[in-house]
Amino acid sequence: MPNGFVKKSVETLTLGEKLKKIRSERRISLTDIARFTKIQLKYLENIEEGLYEKLPSDVYVRGFLKSYAKFLGVNGESLIRLYQKERGIKRSLDKNGNNYIKQPEFLNISPWVFGPKTMIFFSLAILILAGFFYVYKELGSFANNPKLVILAPEPNAATANDFIAVEGKVEKDTKLFINDQPVIIDDEGGFKENITLQAGTNFINVRCLNRFGKETLETLTVHSNLQKEISEKNDNEEISAVPDIFGKKIELEVKAKSRLISLSIEADGHLIFSGEIKEGEIKNFQAEKNLVLNSDKADETLVRFNGQDQELLGEKSQPIKKVFNVAEGSNL
Question: Would the CA dihedral through 301, 305, 310, 316 be positive or negative?
Answer without folding.
Answer: negative
